[in-house]
Design goal:
This protein is α+β, with helices and mostly antiparallel strands and 60 residues long. It has a single domain, classed as Alpha-Beta Plaits (2-Layer Sandwich), CATH 3.30.70.20. It is built from two helices and four strands, in the order βαββαβ. The strands form two sheets. Strands 1-4 form a two-stranded antiparallel ribbon. Strands 2-3 form a two-stranded antiparallel sheet. The radius of gyration is 10 Å and the shape is globular.
């Protein structure tokens, strides 16, 4: 099962991960991006590539 993590020290809430994720894994809650549907991750790594701050890591 995939594991998606967000490094909140690096995250600047650009929301690009939300925009590019084909599985809608991410949501914005209380002004920050969270991994809302971990099990839906398809391991495409689009969120890692899109994040301008390198805050997202996807592991198999």
């Amino acid at each position: 099962m995939p594991k998606v993590t967000i490094d909140y020290e690096k995250c600047k809430v650009s929301k690009q991960c939300i925009d590019v994720c084909p599985a809608a894994v991410f949501e914005e809650q209380d002004g920050k991006v969270v991994v809302a549907r971990q099990d839906d991750c398809t391991l495409c790594h689009a969120c890692e590539s899109a994040c301008p701050n390198g805050a997202i890591k996807v592991e198999e």
